[in-house]
Amino acid sequence: MRRGFALFAGVASEILRASAREAEALGYGSFWVNYPGSIDGIAALAAAAGETRRIELGIGVIPLHTRGPASIAQGIRAHALPVARLLLGVGSPNPGALLRVGDGVRALRAELPARLVVAALGPRMCRLAGEVADGVLFNWLTPEHARRSAEWVRAGALAAERRPPTLFAYVRAALGSAACDRLAEEGARYQAIPAYAAHFTRMGVDPVATAIAARTPADLVAALAGWNGAVDEVVVRAITAEDTVEENLALLRAAKPA
Questions:
Q1: Handedness of CA 180, 186, 191, 196 (dihedral sign)
Q2: What is the DSSP string of 85-144?
Q3: Could you read off the pLDDT of 190-234 as tens digits, one per residue?
Q4: What is the mean pLDDT of the chain?
Q5: Any idea what the Cα angle at residue 229 is, between residues 223 and 231, rounded to 5°?
Q6: CB under 8 Å to 71, separation ≥6 — which residues?
Q7: Domain CATH for 172
Q8: What angle separates helix 69-78 from helix 97-111, to the nearest 10 degrees?
Q9: 209: which DSSP letter?
Q10: Which pLDDT tens digit goes with each residue over 143-184?
Q11: pLDDT band at 82, cuts 50/70/90?
Q12: Which SS3 state, helix, strand or coil, does residue 3 take?
């Protein structure tokens, strides 16, 4: 199973650059940033692109209800992101999520040759992703629920008579007690979002049960092994105590692909 690494797009540029270089050197398959509110994840990903030559570059995900396909395509061109390596993630909250995502994917295909990744939580969005996307990005879920979600995705692909998309999963990971405390805080923030609250209820777990709160590097490696066979690529979403270069590199090295 391939492995990716992901950072909050708002971390310092030196963290993005150093982590992208190290991820490529260690054999990670992809390097991702998110798109949090007012922070332009496209610009953040461009910093990583400038430091790498081979690793795939993911953005997960751009909300289509706040930034439309034409603007996304313009931003990617303006920052000269290498579309051959790009994993362009999009998503949308309700109401109107299914229609917005379906239309958005079609519009982006007409604009860019990049691979399109759809963020999916529930069964209907998973099926839509199977019908239209090149990849699916799961988030805040257990390996067991990832397998169930994969079945929904494959059902959508089968109905559309197309090859199933690549399955990615953001798996938040913290290393050390202070980082684990911060992970718990992030989980609580997501628990307060209605769509995610329903998602956690559907799985019957608390947010932190979907993540890896590791006290030691060995704990991290053991927890990642539990994802074997659940998806095509686990994307380790870094949670650190202080957002330093050293903390992120330590986590990246501890979680490196075998």
A1: negative
A2: TEEEEEE-PSSSHHHHHHHHHHHHHHH--SEEEEE--SHHHHHHHHHH-SEEEEES--HH
A3: 999 999 999 999 999 999 999 999 999 999 999 999 999 999 999
A4: 98
A5: 90
A6: none
A7: 3.20.20.30
A8: 40
A9: G
A10: 999 999 999 999 999 999 999 999 999 999 999 999 999 999
A11: very high
A12: strand
Q: What percent of the chain has pLDDT over 70?
A: 100
Element (H, E) at 166: strand 166-175
Phi, psi of 42 (to 5 degrees): -65, -45
Query: By residue range, what is the domain housing residue 183?
Result: 2-254
C-alpha closest to that of 19 among 183, 238, 214: 238
Q: How crowded is residue 13: how many other Cβ atoms within 10 Å of its Cβ? A: 11
Contact yes or no for 240/195 (Cβ under 8 A): no
pTM of the complete model beyond 0.90: yes
Cβ neighbours, 10 Å, residue 49: 19
Q: 26 and 256 in contact (C-beta within 8 Å)?
A: yes
Q: 10 Å Cβ neighbour count for 10?
A: 17
Q: Are 52 and 32 in contact, with CB atoms under 8 Å apart?
A: no
Our count of domains for the chain comes to: 1
What letter represents residue 58's amino acid?
Answer: G
3-class DSSP state of 226: coil
